[in-house]
Every structure is written in structure tokens, then in C-alpha cells.
Amino acid sequence: MTSAATWIVMGIVVVAAAGAVTWVFWPEGGSPNGGLEDDDAAVPAQTKNQERGSIDVVATRQAWNDGQVRFSLSIDTHTVDLSNYDPLAKAHLEADGGALTPTADSEVVSNDGHHISAMLTFDAAADEPLTLILRDLDGITWRLEFTP
Cα dist. 32→15, 23, 29, 45, 65 in Å? Predict the structure, then answer.
């Protein structure tokens, strides 16, 4: 056999052996953890966007973790002064018929007057619809609805 043919045969053998090992040792369900996903992956991230006038609000519900849900929040405008808007004081979450305020580990990441970035955490259950509410943002109450 020529040198090139030997290398081709060796490559085929290596690929076949890797496939066999994967097939034998990979658990049922098609994923390394047997088809069971981590709790954080049970509810996928979901993004909602609303634009009213010159303000654009984008909120992304992150994956759930230990009975808490975390939202990344972005508020952008080029005409309204947002420097006095505090999303930690003005945001709440409607869940299971009640209004929840952000937990102590929520934070405003930045606020330059026209762009606000925040991370909001709430104590909430994963199996219910949620509505993120931002009060008095340029005189308007914003409602961003998320499904489980």
C-alpha cells in the first residue's frame, strides 16, 4: 500500500473508532446528561422590545435559577434625558397576581442620560407568565410580557 493510502485508511479507522466510542458511552437522549437539561436551560431566554416615541426598551429574560429570574434591561433614546430615571425604583414584576420589586443584587450597570443598562433580579416561579413593568418612563408605564 502506498503512503497516501495508508494515511487515508488510518484516518478512516480513527474516525470510525471515535464514532464507536461516542455511540457506546453517550447516554440515551442525545445529550451528555442523558437528555435532562440544567434548570437554567429549562426556560429559554426570551427578549421583548417596545418602542414608543423616541424611547426604545429591550428586556431579555435570562434563564431561571433557584426560584429567581433575571432580566437584562436596555433603555435607549437620543432626545429624552434619562439621567434621573432609576429602573431599580421604577421597575416591578407582576407574577402570580402580585407585584415583586427587584432583589438587592439588581444593579444599574450604566446610565449616561440617554442610554440605561441594568440587570434586574426578582424572586419568581418559572411556571407562570410574567410582566415586567417600568413605571413613569417619560410619563408612560411600559409593560413587557413574558411567557413560561
Answer: 20, 11, 8, 21, 21
Closest CA to 94 of 128, 48, 119: 128
pLDDT tens readout for residues 2-31: 676 776 766 565 555 455 444 444 444 443
Same domain, 22 and 47: no
Q: Are residues 79 and 62 in the same domain?
A: yes
Cβ contacts of residue 103 below 8 Å, gap of 6+? 68, 121, 122, 123
Cβ-contact 77, 103 below 8 angstroms: no
d(CA 65, CA 41): 9
List, for residues 46-60, the tens digit of each pLDDT value. 999 999 989 999 999
pTM value > 0.90: no
- If asked whether residues 92 and 48 sit together in one domain, one would say yes
